[in-house]
Records
---
Amino acid sequence: MLVPDPKVVRQLLTRYATLRIAQAERQTAAVARELEDVTRRLCVTMGTAGVHDAIARADDLLARTRTDRRRSPEQDGESGLSLAV
């Protein structure tokens, strides 16, 4: 099974949350269309039929990614140092 890129998942979740806030503040057709598009992409990316399941799977994926990186960055070929160093 393919695992989505955590960076892409994080971007989709951020965009989804931003659009939900924008929709709550002021509903417009443009925001509604973009929210529908991001919702669909999030569901497809996470392999779900509903946004609530997609968000739950995305949260789980990101939590696993954080846990895996804390355990052993060297296993992924990383030194654990920031790129800014």
Note: The CA atoms of residues 69 and 75 lie 9 Å apart.
---
Amino acid sequence: MTHTNPDPEPERSTGLEPGGGVPPGETPPGESSMSEAGPWEGNNPPKGWAMAPLTVILVLVALVAAGFLGYALVLML
């Protein structure tokens, strides 16, 4: 990966005052215009649920629903 310096070169950049300051009315470069702006995001977890936790949750929901159904049937008899 190559790294480029996002700092402007004062002798080749327009709109810079001596010392590298930006005069009023000028807009400095935004983050999206600089290369490698922002943190490196190479270690993000995948989006979505994995199958094992989702299966466990669905089984627990089915067991609770079956328990409520059984309780309702016992009360009606």
Note: The chain has a mean pLDDT of 75.
---
Amino acid sequence: MMNASHNFRFIERDYWYHKALCDTDHLLPGQIDAMLDEAHSHYADYTFKFYDDGSVIIIDNDTNNRIKPRELTGAVYDFYVRKRIYLIKYNLMEKQLQYA
């Protein structure tokens, strides 16, 4: 049986842009872009493959290298944890409905 995966892409710059846009009424999109361009020279761009058996593969889209979950920090780690919790809850709900 094939192990299904749930694929997500996390682009850190987009995360910070959206957060700034939602958290303030005082900055225009162009101002946010300018701040982000000045703040960092590199933002993470990862693809996450979460498998139904609980395993995960994380690929750095810039280098095509695999990343271990313990290497994640900041916003990327937050994204990973939130998706992991969401998928565990979703899997439990599916099983409850299947066996109810």
Note: Helices lie at 12-23, 29-39, 74-99.
---
Amino acid sequence: MKPGIHPAYEPVVFRDRAGGFAFLTRSTATSDKTVEWEDGNTYPVIDVEISSASHPFYTGTARVLDTAGRVERFERRYGTRGAR
């Protein structure tokens, strides 16, 4: 790799405010805000709106779409092609 052209890859805390969940990882993203982590060190913190702790798919609160109704509406509108 060429030196001096890549962004710094350092530890960052991503915090989900809605889910009350935070995790420490490495990233090129940075922030002016900091937080003291469980290990006693201070890291930049990036607040996110949604994570696996608050996303409906991961929490089991996802809505089920009515796909059968959509197919029937499509067939009423455009007919069934090729079916005889």
Note: Residues 4 and 28 are 14 Å apart (CA to CA).
